[in-house]
Please model this.
Amino acid sequence: MGRVAIGTGCLLVAAALAAPGPGLASAPKAVVADKVKDRFTPAPYDRQKIRGLLGERMRVNLEGRLLHVNEAALLAGFQRRPGEQPWIGEHAGKFLDAATNTWLYTGDYRLKPMLDRMAQSLIATQLPDGYLGTYLDSQRWTSWDVWVHKYDLIGLLRYYAATGDGPSLEAARKIGDLLELTFGDGPGQRDILKSGTHVGMAATSVLEPILMLYRYNGDERYLDFARYIVRSYDRPGGPKLVASLTATGNVFQTADAKAYEMMSNLVGLVDLYRLTGDETFLKPALAAWRDIATRRLYLTGTTSSDEYFQDSGDLPGEESANVGETCATVTWLQLNWQLLRLTGEAQYADEIERTLFNHLLGAQDAKNGNFCYFTPLVGRKRPSATISCCLSSGPRGVAMIPQLLWGLRDDGPAVLLYAPGEATIPLPNGLDVVLRSETKFPADGAVTISVRTPRVARFPLYLRVPSWCTRYTATVKGEVTEGKPGQFVKLDRNWLPGEMVQIQMDLPVRVAPGGSSYGDFVAIVRGPQVLALEASLNPLVQYPHRAAPRSANPATLGLIETKAGANWPQAYMIDGVVAGKTQPLVLVPFADALNYRVWLARPDRIPLGQVAATAFGRESWSRPGTQHGSICDERSDTYRNTLGAKPAPQDWYAVEMDQAASIARVVYRHGKLFANGGWFDTSEGKPQIQIKRTRTANWETVATLDEYPNASAIQPPGMRDGEAFSVRLKSPVKAVGLRIAGKPGGQFSTCAELAGYER
Ligand SMILES: [Zn+2]
Model:
């Protein structure tokens, strides 16, 4: 096992930086060389310090989350098999990964013993043949068992890479040997596709850590096993990731379109390209990246609804659409990071910046480090401390931050993202360059970077110009260099020790169109940050879904900074219009918002008329369907259906409120008709309108929707998409819930709106 000292450069400079990290004097080195050399290498974790917003969120990740994980709960499934649910075993490895990176960066003396305990306790449960899952012998390699081993490998190998801990590498090797022996296309071997969910993608995503193992161990059998995994994609019933993505470039039409699992495989494919130089492995990852970035990416930098990629431009943002699983957000970040390292291209840093400053930090509870499973663009955040895939993935994403900001790009130090702090960047010639950055970014676009070298030295300094930036200048000793959006400024000169670079970039305010999912809406974006109308800061705006900026022209939005109290580090005010009246609107970054709307009505499309008492209800339905869209958003063009679920004798759609409301009139809007369903069968009666008087009461029928046209199980009624039908109740009722129930026509029903009105 070869070992090298990392950071063998100028010790004086390192000491001056006073990095609190643990030091990596004996960190193990990869024993296999990459065939394709990375163009970007991040600054070492333990030789940097990040302050400001990113530093604070990393602090919360450590203090609030990682130091408080329930170690016993993470290990219970290994110690007493079987685990209580199929993927409970993934959390130990995810913790090891997040905590190792965090410890490397902080050197935190409380975290290290937790890490050591977790690794040792996990290894202690490994069976003699190498098995390290949470399943009984009879259930081995079913469901999520390979997936669990994937995270064992990731956690143990990351821990090994940071500490040089021999038993961790040995445990990982035993896992690798067991997998390599068990799965393959040789006689008596199992098919890995049949050992994991989502067209086999959950199991095949073990590709990524198998390559980590190969790197640290050098045994060619692991590289052969990686090639077997990729070959298996194309076996009958396989996800065809390479073939389909290379041919179609469409993730929605590939395998079952499950976002987290598919992107996890792509992360492995990029690394397989790095190790082999075979472009066959890179092409599908590049095609998928382009497809996601251009057709399936939310403005806030996540992807997936209900955990799946959706059709082109279909980006529903309500809570009911289960937007952006945090696991998908983090894996998208990992995919971008892989491509950034490989290519050094600014476009990947652009996406990393978007995701980091918006959806990743937006999913994190800024107070306690808990994470949301889904994070809507319209609605409330609901972070949770309940053990879930996302609660374990979010901290891994935050712990990646020190790999994203600065490092070596080709032959010189590079700044990719702007934050206050400092980093030591070892150059290939042995020289250590310390970059010290002072800025209030993302609140402000001025950045001062001092370049500290032990002596005069010539090298290029690369500064990324964000793609949203319209004016960017970097000034050294009065010499001004202009930057182009989406490219790097290259300052190639003789640097004197302590020389300063003054960067000035504008943070333009943009009005982003809502795309096909939000045609009548816009979002306000400032620099890298998507802004949101926060309910608690706009007490005069009773109905936020009817609030609009006064102008859709950024130049006349009237955006100014404002103060909104200690809980809101950044806040902005714009001129708005609510229900026809001028009204200032207070916006905060999406990353900080709690109960909010990113999508604001277009000033020329503000809804008018009476507002439903159910406008802010929680939505539910009897069977999951395939189409998304809120049923209480005052939009006839977005709807739910129950298509694709098991047949049912009755369907219902419900809205429940926090407080009882008086309801005198109910409006149901039909969604969309299809040949095989989408309506209610009225042969046994018209759809029923039901209410719930208290939260615990039963549903009671208060009316039938007599206006609804006659239809049978096979004959749809004649109606327009989005058509409304209403009924006035005999007398107004006080209710906390409103529901429509009926027999699905064809195989399923649809609902665009269900609204209760006071009059
Ligand atoms: Zn998840």
